[in-house]
Amino acid sequence: MSSNGVVDNTSIDTTIFTSLQDKIDEETKTREELKDIVEILTKQGRLTQSLLARIHNCPTAQLQAQVLQPTAQSIQEQVITVTRLGQTASKYPFYKWNGIWQRDVQNLISSLQLYVWLSEGKLVTIEEVGVQFGVAVNVKETDTFHVTIEDYLLALCSTIEELSRLAPNAVTLGDFARPVQISRFIKDVYAGFQLLNLKNDALRRRSDGIKYAVKKVEDVVYDLSLRGLLSKEET
Amino acid sequence: MKCSSAIQKIVLMASSSSPQRLRQWANFQSSPKKARTMSTQSSLKDAFSSYADYLNNLNEKRERVVKASRDITMNSKKVIFQVHRISKNKKEEVLEKAYKDLAAVMNQYVARLVKELKGSDFWKLRRAYSPGIQEYVEAATLCRFCKSGTLLSLEEMNASFSSLSNPSQEPLQINILDYILGLADLTGELMRLAIGRISDGELQYAEKICTFVREIHRELTLLVPHMDEPSDMKTKMETMLQSVIKIENACFSVHVRGSECNLLGTDDSSYSLMGAAEGIDL
């Protein structure tokens, strides 16, 4: 090495960078592998959501045949994909990759929540979601594919929003009992959310919307009761 | 009608691919309609209480991790300042202290971070601790360069962490992105160091730094386009190039002026060479 600019440039071991390159290539491969499955899930999710969107113009009496049955099939298709995703994704660190499928899994959970509420009038629990998906839920100790509590709660925010939209639409279709059921349900859920200490994150922002949903449905119920359109049992 | 045929297709596919799941689903569907009772309401409340516990614990843990990360950052910065105290006659002594401080960062603060993280936390809370890790990479690679003129590799750093956690647990592994971002910051520190060395009359040292930084920049130019989250990286690459150019310019000026005054290589050149660093924004 001398001061006239002739300096040997071997001070860096170039294998350091080739090894980094190999690692990056490997990550790219994993990403592609997961994205391929998630793409299928996205496509299937669109069908499920388009089927569920029919609740807004389907009379309650025909709900089972026209909406719920086809939705069940579509959800089930998605479930098969999620199970497959879970098997593949469990090979890798969960939180390294979960950004790839988070949105689609949340949409699916929301579809299931809506489906179960429409057919049984109850909130599907996160454990039941896990059973249906054939995957674990809320895993703490091991690093495996699972449904997180955050996913479940974010999905619930969407579900509530969808139900608040259903309340006035049900009235239009002549079902005056529906808004009352919805009102009770989302008030319960709202009370649940109030138990959570949320920090300023996505969940906090999404759940902030629930109070508007509650108000919207309350207004519908109020309009109905004002005009004496609710039976005694419903009020 | 298009839609219903699509459904039929899916029904067919579904029934052929997973009969077991179908049965399970059918059971689920046909479970008797439950009336909304007080019990469902209270079970909902129980469920949310458990979610609240989960979120509280997670937030507290995240806070602790952020705190640990901040401590790592702060103390790694001190190590870097220590390295900059190098002068022509006091190299060994200064570096020895820097290495001692670096070891303390590892044994005290990185160890505390590792204690918080287990299982899936490494990735779950990555954003909370990656600033600290990047700063640590910067400090450790800077120390290594000053000592032996080489680049500390990701593997070596990861290996040094394995002593912090007990063998049954997964050790802390530095994420590739954090390592590369740490390297990017390293070039900024090396630029300062080069200017300092020039002022001190150690032109050879500055040129060695120049070559080293130029190499890192060149190698990273090849890597960065292949990375998945290159957003931070693009601006860092720009800054890195600026650092390279600053060192190059400083080396150039000192050559020009040095040859004019014939001061190159002599011992009391520091005063006139100070001018070489003029106009260089530190």
List the helices and strands and how they pair.
The complex is a heterodimer of chains A (235) and B (282).
Chain A: H1 15-52, H2 63-89, H3 94-97, H4 102-120, H5 126-133, E1 136-137, E2 146-147, H6 149-172, H7 178-193, H8 202-208, H9 210-226
Parallel strand pairs in A: 1-2
Helix pairs in contact in A: 1-2, 1-4, 2-4, 4-6, 6-7, 6-8, 6-9, 7-9
Chain B: H1 2-17, H2 19-30, H3 38-84, H4 91-116, H5 121-124, H6 126-148, H7 154-161, H8 176-199, H9 203-223, H10 231-261, H11 270-273
**End-to-end CA span of chain A:** 91 Å
The named CATH superfamily of the largest domain in chain B = Translin, domain 1
Q: How far is the N terminus from the C terminus of chain B? A: 69 Å
Q: Which bin fits the share of residues in helices of chain B?
A: over 70%
Total domains of chain A? 2
Main sheet: strand order of chain A: 1-2
Order of helices and strands of chain B: HHHHHHHHHHH
Name given to the CATH homologous superfamily of the largest domain in chain A = Translin, domain 1
CATH topology description of the largest domain in chain A: Methane Monooxygenase Hydroxylase, Chain G, domain 1
Task: List the defining traits of the structure above.
heterodimer, A: 235 residues, mainly alpha, Methane Monooxygenase Hydroxylase, Chain G, domain 1, two-stranded parallel sheet, B: 282 residues, 2 domains, disordered C terminus
Question: How is this structure best described in words?
Answer:
With 235 residues, chain A is mainly α. Chain A has helices spanning 15-52, 63-89, 94-97, 102-120, 126-133, 149-172, 178-193, 202-208, 210-226; strands at residues 136-137, 146-147. Chain A folds into two domains: 16-147, Methane Monooxygenase Hydroxylase, Chain G, domain 1; 149-235, Translin, domain 2 (Methane Monooxygenase Hydroxylase, Chain G, domain 1, Up-down Bundle), CATH 1.20.58.200. Chain A is built from nine helices and two strands. Chain A is elongated, with a radius of gyration of 24 Å. The termini of chain A are far apart. In chain A, 42% of the residues are buried. Chain B folds into two domains: 61-174, Methane Monooxygenase Hydroxylase, Chain G, domain 1, CATH 1.20.58; 175-282, Up-down Bundle (Methane Monooxygenase Hydroxylase, Chain G, domain 1), CATH 1.20.58.200. Helices cover 77% and strands 0% of the residues of chain B. Chain B contains eleven helices and no strands. The chains are: A mainly alpha (235), B mainly alpha (282).
